[in-house]
Amino acid sequence: MSALRWGRGAAGLGWALWPVGRPGLRAEEGTLGGLRGCRRRSSASPCEQDRRRDWGHAELLEVLEARVRQLQTNSVSEVRAKLVDVARLPKADGSQSPRKVEAGNEGAALGFTSHWAQKLHKEKLVMQRRKQKLEETLQKENRKHQLRVEPQLLNRELADWLQRWEHGSPRSPWEEQLAQLLQEAPKQLSRSEEHGHTGRISKVRYEAQQQRLLSFLECCLLVDQLPLAHHVLVKHHSKLRQQRALTLPMYNTLLLGWARKGSFRELLYVFFMMKDAGLAPDLLSYAAALQCMGRLNQEASAIQRFLKQMAQDGLQLQELFTNLPLCKEDKAVLLRAVRKAEPTFLPPQPPLSSSKVNSSPLLKEIYSTDKPATYPKQHLPLETLKDLFQQQLSVEMATVVTVESVETAPSLTKEVLQARKTLQELRTRWEEELCLALQQTKDREAQAARKGRPSLFPYLCLLSEGELTQLMLQALQVLPQQGESLLSLAQELGMRIFNRHVVQRKQLSDEVQALQERYFKYLHLLASDTQVVMSRLPREHWEALGTSEASQDQPWPLALVVQLGKQLAEVLVQTVKMPSNLAQPQDTQKLIPVLYHVYSFQSFRQIGILKPHPAFVQLLETAAERTMTFEAAEVPMLCPPLPWTSPHSGAFLLSPTKLMRSLEGTIQHQRLLEGCPPAELHGALDALTQLGNCAWRVNGRVLDLVLTIFNAKGCPRLGVPSPASEAPRPSKQRLPANASPELKTELRRELARCLKVAREMHSLRTDALYRLSLAHHLRHHVFWLPHNMDFRGRTYPCPPHFNHLGSDLARALLEFAEGRPLGPHGLNWLKIHLVNLTGLKKRESLQARLAFADEIMNDILDSADQPMTGRRWWAEADEPWQALACCMEIARAVRAPSPAAYVSHFPVHQAGTAWGLPLST
Amino acid sequence: MWAPMAGLSPRLALPAFAGATRLCLWRSGAAARSRRSLSGFPPKLAPREGLRDLPPGVPRSRLESKRYVLSPSLAETVARLLLRDDGCDLILEINPGPGILTRALLQSGARVIALESDKAFIPHLESLGKELGGKLHVLHTDFFKLDPRSFGVIKPVVNSKLLFQELGIETLSWSNGIPLKVVGIFPTKNEKKMIWKVLHDIYSCTSIYRYGRVQLNLFFNELESQRMMANPQNPNLYYALSVLWQVAYDVKLLHVEPWSSFDISSQSVQQEKPQSKESSEQQVQQNLCLIQLTPHKDLFSQQLTSVNYDVFFHMTKQCFLKRHGKLIDHLTSLSPIDAMDILKEMDQDKNIKIIDMYPSDFKCLFETIECSKDHTFKWLYDDFMEDVII
């Protein structure tokens, strides 16, 4: 990744060159660009008069600047005279006062010969030319520091029109202009496809750029950087090639933004640009204009005229309220405006989305209305579920979950304490430095945006610097010793920013409150002590409880996510430093980076990797901190998940989750999903909802046993990974100086082998550590595992670390939260299940298996009573931990007064093929 | 093509050629080129002796992808170049094929071990040995598949340990003279892979290098040989392999020979069908260069050993990713040690670019970093970063 690094290096230099007290982004809303403003001023500005007085101090540049302004005025003769004056200035030698020179020249000019006059004239022309150049550069300079508001139109007629309007005094009212603009709007919704982009790749790239720009503009709106967005749009619009890439949604985004602010002038500018680009305003553009009118409290007549124009364009007033993804506030303002013109107007009621029913013949029974819908109820009462919802909500609001490690705490030796202290000090320093570095990055990106590039600036503004810093330090914490591919790290960071931002936005709007109310109503369907009138599936019920608001957070394009993540990773690499020797006191030493870009060469491919300094990894190991941080969406839910209602909504309360997991960047799947009529997805949505509604709990006894082994030396045979101390070590003996090459090669091989084994052990250990720590964390809770599916329809639990998919150990840790009595045959099924788990009687009938179980009942009971110290019959089974859990369950059932009445929570597999969720007994 | 043709009836030969043509149709563009340039070389009549006894039925497909020394004058030149008085007359010839070079070598008094990968040539070579008085040892083996690094089973495979034991080759220590000279043509198929194999072998001191500083005399194509010898003076050809070659070996260009001396088709008789050339394909129509690679006596030092050479490999590769970049920028991706310190230690300018560094500078750089005493962690390199099969 050194290329990246060098790029940054250059940028860094640029940064150093900037003045310190550079003004932040200024939005000259309502005033015009600097130079234009100057131009309109009268030529005899007072400051200029001043300057002439202390001529001796004035620099040539300033003089010229002043003259340039005068040049703008029509008093040519006067300027000419002064030109001479300027030209003579260097010769004046300062001895004469300028005024005198001027007077002298003026006097002399009258009497000079024509030759002299000609020469003079030439000089004047030269000066004029110079001045023009200077003026241009000055203009450029000026522009750099201001955000452009006024568009530069390519269509001359239109540009003249705009000029006339600008300079007409008094300005004609803007709504008139708007009406006029709309009347003559081109009847074309989007430009015909350019034929220049024939190549598939270039087309894809072109589309990616468009998407990038659009999402930049949208994000600017979110972080209240509307003037910047406008500036970038104007910049793009002013160049023909870039203008072609602009699409209607981009203009509409800005229209909406200005409308919300009630800034008519900018709104009108955008309309001018749209017309200039040859795009016809659509419903959203009209809605924006109408909203602006509403906010500015326009007269009814103006609105009426506007609505008439809209009708002429073939757009229905009703559609404003049904077809547009507007937020509540927008709609309210719209309605107010419309009511002003048509006091009797009633907005149409949104249609119920559940009106359509899935027509698949396979699902006919499920969706037939004659029978009551069947779905699993929860075993908990309403109040408990409400509590649980509150808990889950607070977890998701906090965005991260801190979990204590189940590894035995190290004895707090001096060494450990010292390491922890060092780490803490480093982190404190890094936090400050990262905040600073982020600010600098933001400034840099803002600068790029001012140059008209859709930079990362608005995205970096979504979260506070503190939050971003926390995200980055978290990433640093979990970076494996051998490093991680920069690309995947960047992607993860980018996605996390997006997820946090979505959660945060939901918090800021009143969505959380609305969600809570709706969820509480929804719980009536699920709770054990409540009934609902209409029997519906959970999803149907949820949909009936409110209209689903169009999700406003479209996932960002992958390129953007990666770019954002890379930027953060780069900040991390550049900023995070540690003393070169961690053991010594810190302040005297040179600082070295903690993270390094390295390359991996794998069969002619080069992969950029971010690698931590080995000393830092060692420090982390020594400190052996006891907490782990997980994202909220990586932990099972504490309340029943939201039912799936669309490809983007469902499962977690706030964290965005996708219905279909896919490789990042494969948007074709998502597009197909979105294009799919909702009713056709019902089967998938309801299946996933049903799976997610299954409540789980941790099998505490098995967990305890696993933890004992885990914290001893592990046991690979039982699937409990060993700690690093158990890794094979290369023989210690030093190589003799004259060792034969063969010996050396042998040593090399051994070293490599040990390293490989140690790495594999480490990754297995970490996986188990996460799983067990989460299990421990959830030990006394009931929890739910929301599900989604892949493109084949295989279902997976969303929380990645702790779920029921996976090894024997993973499955043995879980049991159903809701128990059922075994019934007359339950015990027999338990026994058969046990024999299945041992893998001993694969070819026998169920009867034979049952008989075998009875035969070995002694072993079963021994396993259950003394799992570690007894004969350990269970440890020889194919699936030892599940077998052990089953032994315990059988023992309890057998010893219960009536086995048939014994309430079991134990999951028993029925058909085990490719079926993610075991069915309840 | 003419050699096997001698034993084939024209009727049989025809379908065989047709088959080859069909297989190689997609390469017809390259073949067309080859035909055009071919006209520049007047077809020579190759010597007939020794080839009469060649058994019929040598599979064409195998022959076609190989090149052999076919001109007796070239053979004599090579023999002369090889047998200068440096005290080693034991020569290992790779894929002698029709045995023209073998004959020349034997006649100049060398002891020759012929490793032929094509069974069809073996009886002929054996008879050649008998004819010339027993100083020839013929074995059915592919030299470039000796001691495969992947430990896979490739046939015909021979363990160099067993092979050399059988041949009675003594081990000479690294600083002593040359135990053995290898002569042959470097294969064009999988060229890059083969180059890496040779380099891994010498740096790790395994395979044939277990027996001392074995000298290689190999024909490479012109481009590759220019690259092997490149240094900052011809920056366009300078790349990672140039450094690795030159650090390990004393690279010397012995002889340049036009490709036609090796090409079967241009050696063959006129009446042959033109499309047969399409299958002799691919060999870029350029000269072949005989390169002598003598391992440096001081290749291994206290710092660079056969244990850590892979770090050196990685370092060189990484540096040449951006050849025009500065060394100082690369160093941050190579070692956690401060780049300025390293440069100071090396006594190098801080603006030095990769392209300006001679191979010896790379070795020096490696040794400097390896030497730095007060750092526990000298490299950022990690085994998994290279798919080296150890």
Would you give an account of this structure?
The complex is a heterodimer of chains A (921) and B (390). Chain A contains 37 helices and 16 strands. In chain A, a hairpin with a 5-residue loop joins strand 12 and strand 13. In chain B, strand 2 (111-116), helix 7 and strand 3 form a beta-alpha-beta unit. Chain B is elongated and about 65 Å long. The interface between A and B is large, with 39 and 32 residues.
User: Into which percentage range does the β-strand content of chain B fall?
Assistant: 5-15%
Strand order within the widest beta sheet of chain A: 2-6-5
Termini separation of chain B: 40 Å
Strand tally of chain B is 7
Mean pLDDT of chain A: 79
Mean pLDDT of chain B: 75
Write the layout of secondary structure elements.
The complex is a heterodimer of chains A (921) and B (390).
Chain A: H1 2-17, H2 34-40, H3 46-53, H4 60-72, H5 76-92, H6 98-111, H7 114-144, H8 156-167, H9 174-183, H10 200-222, H11 226-237, H12 240-244, H13 248-261, H14 264-276, H15 283-295, H16 300-312, H17 319-322, H18 328-341, H19 364-367, H20 382-398, E1 400-404, H21 414-450, H22 457-462, H23 465-477, E2 484-485, H24 486-508, H25 511-526, H26 538-544, H27 558-575, E3 577-579, E4 591-593, E5 595-602, E6 605-612, H28 614-623, E7 627-631, E8 642-646, E9 649-651, H29 667-675, H30 678-692, E10 695-698, H31 700-711, H32 741-777, E11 783-784, E12 787-789, E13 795-797, H33 808-812, E14 814-816, E15 820-821, H34 823-838, H35 846-855, H36 857-865, H37 880-895, E16 903-904
Antiparallel strand pairs in A: 1-7, 2-6, 3-4, 5-6, 8-9, 10-11, 10-14, 12-13, 15-16
Chain B: H1 2-5, H2 10-23, H3 28-38, H4 60-64, H5 72-82, E1 90-94, H6 100-107, E2 111-116, H7 122-131, E3 136-140, H8 160-167, E4 181-185, H9 191-204, E5 215-221, H10 222-229, H11 240-248, E6 249-257, H12 264-267, H13 276-280, E7 288-295, H14 309-321, H15 327-331, H16 339-346, H17 359-371
Parallel strand pairs in B: 1-2, 1-4, 2-3, 4-5
Antiparallel strand pairs in B: 5-7, 6-7
